[in-house]
Amino acid sequence: MFGMSTGYTDLPLHSGHVPKWLADLMKRLSYAILEIIVDEYGPDKVVEKLSNPLWFQAFNNIIGMDWDSSGSTTVTTGILKEVTWKADLGVIVVGGKGEKARKVVNEIDIIAEKFNFTSSKVETLKRASKLTAKVDSSLLQDNYQLYHHSIIISEDGNWCVVQQGMNVDLKMARRYHWYSKALKSYVIEPHSGIACNRVDYALNLIDKDAKGARKTILDLARENPNNVINDMKRALRVVRGIHPLTHWLKDVKDEDVRYRTIYYKPVKPTRTLVRTLRKLYEITPSKLEDMLLVKGVGPSTIRALVLVSDLIYNEPPSWKDPVTHPYDPFIYAYAFGGKDGVPYPVNRKVMEETISILEEAINKAKIGETERLKALRRLRNLMK
After folding, report:
1. Considering the domain boundaries, does residue 230 fall inside one?
2. What angle do CA 105, 147, 65 make, to 5 degrees?
3. Of 33, 159, 201, 238, which has the maximum CB count within 10 A?
4. Mean pLDDT throughout 352-359?
5. Helical segments of the chain, H only
6. For residues 27 and 39, what is the distance between their CA atoms, to the nearest angstrom?
7. Each residue's pLDDT tens digit, 156-185
8. Is residue 118 located within the same domain as residue 156?
């Protein structure tokens, strides 16, 4: 049913916790579904499907989590992490919410031994973790602050990233999906999908049409910091309305001016920014990806360089919000219901019976039965 199309879903902030009895059922059901997928298609298929925001949401719904909650990301990845670390499925989830996200590097080292990864593969995975987080916080500045970062890794080294940001003012979340096999560039439209219920505007340097801005900020990163700061001060005078630049005002829509004012007014030539610019000047990064990995380079540094690129060198970023279009996976919430009672309270009896059927089918398959129960065949709908 779901291909690699991308989409957005409603992710408002919900309160409350998953009761233990429901969490236990979620783990059993998740394990049963994962084992079937791995048995039928292999571990890489789990990675591929979780990289799709629509399939991820449908999986979240079918295990009984709220269909529209921001907690769907943290709870579902948490359930998947616990299941994959305990089972031998050929796929493991690392990272998580808050402090758990900072343990990704150590957890990759642990699973490297389990999956017999080479040192090169380990470094590739660690680099992917750092870059995906940096891109979604710095090259894409959409007012959603990252607080959750997970990577799903197969025994062959394929991976997908599922990370989430929160807009505190709106009390809404946005989920970012990445998929290694579909990734052609970390800095040019790299996502397999971005899930959110709101499309607005963003300082967007990953848009394919922002090529000039990407090149210019990399050039500025290798420029003498004193020159960059002087250009920044000139540009800030434009933002404050003190000194207009006619080439900036020409053919610029009122909305674009508003976006620039919102994103550029907080920019200041602070000591921290100057130190970061000096570090970049000394390192002279050859690629934008290398620049992002330099310690100290974050949203503020990127905003400052984009300010100069836009107003001094006339190479603006894109202001297009890269959220994609929806296909509503809410229908899967009707399987057993949702934690908050939407569309109805979780039907514990039906959920337990379904899990038992799946577990029995798995056990029969393990002892050589070639015919799967019809319930297993129905699950193929999730894989198409």
Report:
1. yes
2. 105
3. 159
4. 58
5. 20-41, 43-50, 53-62, 71-86, 104-115, 119-134, 211-221, 225-239, 246-249, 254-264, 271-283, 288-292, 299-311, 348-366, 374-378
6. 18
7. 999 999 999 999 888 888 999 999 999 999
8. yes
pLDDT in tens, 321-354: 998 644 444 444 434 445 555 444 555 665 565 5
Last residue of a domain, one of 300, 320, 340: 320
Could you tell me which residues are beta bridge partners of residue 93?
Answer: 152
Tell me what the pLDDT averaged over the chain comes to. 81
- Cα distance between residue 241 and residue 248, in whole Å: 12
187 plus 49 within the same structural domain:
yes
Task: Name the band, by pLDDT with cuts 50, 70 and 90, for residue 81.
Answer: very high
Separation CA 133–CA 242 (nearest Å):
36
Tokens representing 117? 């990864």
**334 and 196 both lie in a single domain:** yes
Task: Work out how many domains the chain is built from and give that number.
Answer: 2
Helices vs strands, H then E, count in the chain: 15, 8
Please count the CA atoms within 13 angstroms of the CA of 380 that sit on its side-chain side.
8
171 and 220 housed in the same domain: no
Within a domain: residue 11?
no
C-alpha angle 86/92/94, rounded to 5°? 105
Q: Answer yes or no: is 4 within a domain.
A: no
Q: pTM of the entire structure? A: 0.81
Tell me the two tokens of residue 122: 């380990």
184-189 average pLDDT score: 97
Domain stops at, among 279, 294, 320: 320
Which are the contacts of 26, defined by CB distance < 8 A and separation ≥ 6?
18, 63, 64, 65, 75, 79
Q: Which residues, at least 6 apart from 180, have a Cβ–Cβ distance to it below 8 Å?
A: 47, 128, 158, 159, 160
Distances (CA, A) of 327 to 1, 58, 113, 381: 11, 10, 39, 15
Beta bridge partners of 150: 95, 162
Per the CB < 8 A criterion, the answer to whether 306 and 203 are in contact is yes
> Residue 254's domain spans which residues?
208-320
How far apart are the C-alpha atoms of 338 and 65, rounded to whole Å? 5
CA distance 332 to 326: 15
Closest CA to 143 of 180, 170, 117: 170
